[in-house]
Design brief:
Mean pLDDT: 86
Structural class: mainly beta
Number of domains: 1
Strand content: 25-35%
Order of helices and strands: HEEEEEEEEEE
Number of helices: 1
Largest sheet: 4 strands, mixed
Helix content: under 10%
CATH topology: Immunoglobulin-like
Shape: globular
CATH architecture: Sandwich
Length: 165
């Protein structure tokens, strides 16, 4: 009879000490949101991507493969609203970390290029209501940061980083 009570006690302890989320996988690490395109798309655009850089783009030397941490799949030409999730719309998934520059970048070259002169920033992520400097994106481990929304206004583009045409 003692073993029966021990087994029931064990089940009760397991029930009340179990995790509050049940048996579920860890949440994906990344970010999501929407990009809204305003105005007419330039005819010269060959490709459009959402890109993330670890460090700010203060000089042409900051635009490099070591600083580039995320490149989305191509955003279709003429899109008005593009909803994205970095976990399922990237060439390489983004890791947890702090990122200084999140932008919608467009290129005139059909092939993917890592030369700064080939890219124009069409939209920039700003945190809160501060449109004076790029917003910092902080992604904790096992967290999907939501509502990283960007407006790409072709009639009023953001300041361009150094090194463009």
């Amino acid at each position: 009879m003692g073993k029966k009570y021990l087994n029931i006690s064990y089940l009760i302890i397991l029930f009340f000490s179990g995790c509050d989320k049940g048996i579920s996988p860890e949440e994906q690490t990344g970010f999501s949101g929407a990009i809204t395109f305003l105005g007419e798309w330039p005819d010269s655009v060959a490709r459009t991507h959402l890109v993330v850089f670890k460090d700010p783009l203060n000089s042409i030397n900051d635009f490099n493969a070591f600083n580039l941490r995320y490149v989305s799949l191509e955003i279709p030409y003429g899109t008005r609203t593009y909803k994205y999730n970095s976990a399922d719309s990237a060439y390489v998934p983004i890791n947890a970390g702090v990122y200084s520059y999140v932008a919608v970048a467009q290129s005139k070259t059909p092939a993917l290029s890592l030369e700064r002169k080939d890219w124009v920033v069409a939209g920039l992520y700003y945190a809160g209501n501060n449109i004076t400097k790029p917003g910092v994106l902080a992604i904790p481990e096992n967290t999907m940061v939501r509502d990283i929304n960007i407006i790409a206004d072709f009639n009023n583009p953001p300041p361009q980083p150094p090194g463009g045409d």
